């Protein structure tokens, strides 16, 4: 049973993940057009959004526990495959984000460009699948 005040956190977390995804897409567009300062500001916003997400996510799960997936049949392997890839990449992406951000802010452009594309795609995947997992768990496949 969830504490009522905590019941808003899953939707907040999904919104933060979705916001991070939009910011990442926007930042990619900026850098593609050569707008370095706009890219920088947008990436800092994406990073900040993701840090707020992680803080809310950890707080929520420390206080509310885990909601078990209620879907049955073919839904279970689909959901858990998605969850496993999301979780694994969410762990992998943290050092990549920190490294990419550090190199970008220090204007180590050659080193930043080597890691930024991988970081971008993994971070975008984690952000988008976070929203999808929320939708599947709390709305579509509630049981």
Describe the fold and architecture:
The structure is a single chain. The chain is an all-alpha fold and 143 residues long. It has a single domain (4-140), classed as Four Helix Bundle (Hemerythrin (Met), subunit A). 81% of the residues lie in helices and 0% in strands. The protein contains four helices and no strands. The protein has helices spanning 9-32, 36-64, 75-105, 109-140. Helix 1 runs antiparallel to helix 2 (36-64) and helix 3 (75-105) runs antiparallel to helix 4 (109-140). It is elongated and about 50 Å long.
Question: Which descriptors apply to this entry?
Answer:
elongated, single chain, mainly alpha, Four Helix Bundle (Hemerythrin (Met), subunit A), 81% helix, 143 residues, 4 helices
Structural class: mainly alpha
Write the H/E string, N to C.
Answer: HHHH
- The DSSP helix count reads 4
Number of strands: 0
Main sheet properties:
none
Helix content: over 70%
Average pLDDT: 93
The multimeric state of the shown protein is: single chain
Net shape: elongated
CATH superfamily grouping: Cytochrome c oxidase, subunit III, four-helix bundle
Kindly report how far apart the N and C termini lie.
Answer: 16 Å
Number of individual domains: 1
Report low-confidence residues grouped into runs of 5 or more.
Answer: none
Rg from Cα = 17 Å
Provide the CATH top-level class. Mainly Alpha
């Amino acid at each position: 049973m969830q504490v009522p005040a905590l019941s808003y956190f899953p939707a907040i977390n999904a919104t933060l993940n979705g916001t991070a995804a939009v910011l990442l897409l926007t930042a990619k567009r900026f850098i593609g057009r050569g707008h370095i300062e706009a890219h920088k500001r947008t990436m800092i916003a994406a990073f900040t959004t993701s840090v707020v997400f992680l803080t809310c996510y950890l707080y929520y799960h420390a206080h509310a526990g885990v909601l078990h997936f209620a879907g049955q049949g073919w839904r279970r392997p689909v959901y858990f495959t998605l969850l496993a890839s999301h979780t694994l990449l969410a762990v992998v992406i943290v050092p990549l984000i920190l490294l990419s951000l550090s190199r970008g802010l220090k204007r180590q452009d050659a080193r930043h460009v080597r890691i930024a594309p991988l970081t971008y795609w993994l971070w975008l995947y984690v952000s988008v699948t976070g929203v999808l997992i929320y939708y599947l768990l709390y709305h579509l496949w509630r049981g």
